[in-house]
């Protein structure tokens, strides 16, 4: 049995099925990220694990201890679980130092030193320890909430969008620092986030949730490169999805002959590539020659966004797609380094690298 075992968890609010049968296992010390559209049940799941609400049905078992079994539940304060809520939920009447030290014993050895150390770890200046929560920015408050949860040395840490109020640079460095801190302390963690890159980089296990259920659970690479369906694929990033004729480990599609991740499949199927698998080189109408199978396209839209640009292209030579009507004139959306952004009307040569994923 894993450190955390959740099985058959359901929760209704009136007619709304917030959770419709959740199963999840997490190994001791692991990090799991839960992603999904707004309202799919992510916060409800964390609240049930934390013990703020009881499930209608299902079990939550932590380290062999049954925390919830249907309506029978261990109270939240006896679970040894830390929850960092979306809004931080700090105690407004306490100083920042006392907020961080809230769960520490009053007489705990080196209490001030530990508070200062935790504040430092989450990137907070010592000078703010005397302030009250309302004197801090939203991002600073989130970091205090994290430090407070860490101070309690929980068995399980639940993080509900803890980095959402931070700007991009700080968000990435905080994510790394918090991951390292949790790793060093060996604390099993579940992170809820809207940010796909955050989920894929923070966790060793990712669960994509929709309508109160998990659509797919797996490693970040599995979910990104071998998503179960279009919804999972598109939730974790941009995807190029094409009809193709699949046989012997290859697919014939509008992007030519591409290696696929299934040797056994032999049918008409949908294949998926990530945009970064398609290399885009600028050329000209005069330069449109190359070995058979070379794919050329015309840029129909171009958007510069700093380090990368996003372009839409219309394929100019279609090597017999099996289902041309399904492609129609839908442009492909691709990316390339922003420093080399092509203009609308330019001709580009496309080269696919790696394998395409065949959908079931
Ligand atoms: N206390 C409640 N009473 C009634 N309905 C609720 C309650 N809490 C949640 N819901 C409903 O349950 C569903 C799941 O809500 P939940 O907050 O878990 O979603 P979420 O995935 O965390 O959303 P977000 O990403 O927007 O925070 C929603 O339809 C929501 O409106």
From TrEMBL:
It comes from the Bacteria. PROSITE patterns: ABC_TRANSPORTER_1, ABC_TRANSPORTER_2. CDD domains: ABC_Carb_Solutes_like (cd03259). One of its GO terms (molecular function) is ATP binding. The keyword Transmembrane does not apply. SUPFAM superfamilies: MOP-like (SSF50331), P-loop containing nucleoside triphosphate hydrolases (SSF52540). InterPro entries: AAA+_ATPase (IPR003593), ABC_SmlMolc_Importer (IPR050093), ABC_transporter-like_ATP-bd (IPR003439), ABC_transporter-like_CS (IPR017871), ABC_transpr_FbpC (IPR015853), Mo/tungstate-bd_C_term_dom (IPR008995), P-loop_NTPase (IPR027417). Residues 4-236 form the ABC transporter domain. Gene3D superfamilies: 2.40.50.450, P-loop containing nucleotide triphosphate hydrolases (3.40.50.300). Keywords: ATP-binding, Cell membrane, Ion transport, Iron, Iron transport, Membrane, Nucleotide-binding, Transport. The keyword Membrane applies. It holds the Pfam family ABC_tran. Belongs to the ABC transporter superfamily. This is ABC transporter ATP-binding protein. It comes from Mesorhizobium caraganae.
């Amino acid at each position: 049995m894993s450190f955390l075992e959740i099985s058959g968890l359901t929760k209704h609010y009136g007619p709304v099925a917030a959770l419709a049968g959740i199963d999840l296992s997490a190994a001791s010390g692991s990090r799991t990220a839960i992603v999904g559209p707004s309202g799919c049940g992510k916060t409800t799941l964390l609240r049930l694990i934390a013990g703020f609400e009881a499930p209608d049905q299902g079990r939550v078992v932590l380290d062999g201890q049954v925390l919830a079994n249907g309506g029978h539940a261990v109270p939240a304060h006896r679970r040894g679980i830390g929850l960092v809520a979306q809004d931080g939920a700090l105690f407004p009447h306490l100083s920042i130092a006392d907020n961080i030290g809230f769960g520490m014993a009053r007489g705990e050895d080196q209490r001030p030193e530990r508070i200062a150390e935790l504040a430092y770890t989450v990137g907070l200046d010592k000078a703010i320890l005397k302030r009250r929560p309302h004197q801090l920015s939203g991002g600073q408050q989130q970091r205090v909430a994290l430090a407070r949860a860490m101070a309690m040395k929980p068995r399980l840490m639940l993080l509900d969008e803890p980095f959402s109020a931070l700007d991009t640079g700080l968000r990435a460095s905080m994510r790394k620092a918090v991951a390292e801190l949790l790793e060093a302390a060996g604390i099993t963690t579940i992170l809820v986030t809207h940010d796909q890159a955050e989920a894929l980089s923070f966790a060793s296990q990712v669960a994509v949730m929709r309508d109160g259920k998990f659509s797919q659970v797996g490693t970040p690479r599995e979910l990104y490169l071998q998503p179960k369906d279009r919804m999972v694929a598109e939730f974790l990033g941009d995807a190029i999805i094409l009809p193709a004729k699949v046989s012997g480990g290859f697919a014939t599609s509008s992007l030519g002959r591409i290696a696929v991740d299934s040797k056994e499949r032999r049918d008409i199927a949908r294949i998926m590539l990530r945009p970064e698998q398609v290399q885009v080189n600028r050329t000209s109408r005069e330069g449109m020659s190359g070995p058979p199978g070379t794919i050329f396209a015309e840029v129909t839209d171009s958007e510069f966004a700093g380090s990368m640009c996003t372009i839409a292209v219309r394929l100019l030579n279609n090597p017999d797609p099996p289902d041309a009507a399904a492609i129609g004139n839908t442009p492909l959306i691709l990316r390339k380094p922003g420093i080399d952004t092509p203009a609308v009307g330019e001709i580009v040569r496309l080269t696919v690298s790696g394998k395409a994923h065949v959908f079931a």
